[in-house]
Every structure is written in structure tokens, then in C-alpha cells.
Design brief:
alpha/beta, seven-stranded mixed beta sheet, five-stranded parallel beta sheet, 7 helices, elongated
Length: about 350
Amino acid sequence: MNGSNDTAESVRDVIVVGSGVGGLSAAVYAARADLEPLVLEGPEPGGQLTLTTDVENYLGFPEGVGGMELIQRGKEQAERFGAEFRHGTVERATLDERPFELELSSGDVLRTRALIVATGASARWVGAENEDELMGYGLSTCATCDGAFHRGDDVLVIGGGDSAMEEALFLAKFADSVTIVHRRDELRASEVMARRARDHEKIEFRWNTELLEIHGSQAEGVTGATLVSHPDGHPTEKLESDREVEREEVAVGGIFYGVGHVPNTDFLADTAVELEESGHLRTLEGRTTETAVAGVFGAGDVMDPEYRQAITAAGTGSMAALDAEAWLDERAAAESQSETAAEIPADD
């Protein structure tokens, strides 16, 4: 095994890029296998879960657990087994040579035999006033994570694609009413998803409308919103110049952004790792975490556009670490056999 020296000359067995629940799970499993993983925490340590105040559907916490607390516990668990953490953002990856090289934004270069990509996917925000303060306090990017907290509420869903329709349909199980706010007068969503939303008795639409401001506080949560509308759509672009823009304040108990997620895979763009059209990491068919580059594995939301749950991210994190361990063992065995064969003298 390798020491924890981070000079360009040292080579790690495993580097985990990302410190959300997927990366932490991978770190725990890799550390317990004595691989001494280095975890790069990135620009948003802990990932999206740190924006969730209460997690009620994570196994083993019947009373629920705070998102930040769950992340902190995972980090402490990984450190207990020998994982090392470092702040750093990967700007460029060189994966066509071994060991792999990762160039950080600081200019440092790290080298590793195996790489686990757990960089997650960042939810798109809309730029409404107070969204920074109220994200996780009634404002959410995940209905399946937080929808159950809004039983009996009137809620808004922002967006017009399949993500927004899925959020709205899920929220309709709990909320008294769901209003989809879309900046145009037609949806981007597939016809099937749009029809389901239109036909649902609890779901209404506000066309040519955008969210301008969110009302409330961290103590009381979201209490309302300011909406702006214009007959030709895209009202926020016309605020300063067009008198036809109308403002309206509405009372709501929750707001959900359904404008999609962006997988954090930019640093892999010039590598042989294959990406889906959406930008998500593509894993080999029939294999859960292996990618097109041997020794590179994916975990969590960066490879999962469907479920995007803490529990599924943790599961794929553990699988990525187990796959990396098996791959390293196989590679070490092959190298050992090759060295042994080279030492055997040829027959005269």
C-alpha cells in the first residue's frame, strides 16, 4: 500500500472524486479494504444532501436525520478506517496512461491506480431572490426527498420539462394543490408526461410565468412567492422595459425546482470515459459501476439520472469500491505472474 504523501511522485491505490453520500460510501469500503483512499471534496463538500434539512427515508434512522449530520457521520466513519480527505477540484484528468493523473485547480497533480468518480449532479437553480437562504427550508430540488413534508400544503413546481412533470405528479400525492409555473405557454415535456400532469385534478398550470422572489425564513420555512407574468412569456427578461409584466404574490408552503440537473463530468470531457447525451457517466452494459476505461468507476448521481436518492448513491458507492478493489487485485496478480514468467530462464 501507498503512504499519504500527495507529491506528483506518489501513487495512490484509489482516489475518490466527490464527497457526497456516494463518495463517502466508496471511501468507507475502500478504506476497510486497506486501500487508503484519498477523497477530494470538491467545491461543494457533502454534495446536495447538505441542502436537505431532514432525511426521513434513509435506512437506520427511524426518526430521520439531518442531511449535514448524515454527511458528517459518513466522513467520520471513512476517516476512522483510514480514508484521507482533501479540498480540491479536478480540472483535468489524464486517463490514457497508467497511473492516472488528476490535475487540480491549484495546479497540483495527483496520481492513482484506480479512480472512483462520485462528483454528483448539480441541480439547476432559477435565480429567484432568497433562494440561497431558503434552499432546504421549504425550497427543494427533489420531490421524492422532501415531498412528504408538504402534506396539506399548496406548492409550486418551477419548470416545463419531464423533470417538472415528475416532481408535480409525485407532490400531488401529498399536497393539497400543485401549480406548475412555466415561463412559456407550451411544455418541453414528453406528451405522455404532459398529459398525465394536465389530467391530474390537483395540478394546475401558470403559463408565461416565472418565479421572481421567495418569501419566508429559515425559522418558518417558505410562506409565499412573487410571480411575474407576460403574455409573450419570459417575463423576467422584460421586467425593466415592458409595462405588460404583471406581479402577483401567492401564499404557498413549498417550492420545488424541476428544471433539471447537470452532472459534474466536465473534467472527463477529453478522456475515453463515455458519457450519456445528458452528460451522465455511462457504465458498461451489464456492469454496475465500470466505465469504458478500465480502472475508472462511477458512483452516485453522476451515473444515475433516474433514482437520485441518498440510499441508491450509497449503494453504488459501495459497489464502486468493491469493483475497484477486485480490479486492483486482478491487476496485481497479472503483474506478479508477468514478473515471475520473466524471471524463469528460457530452455536452451
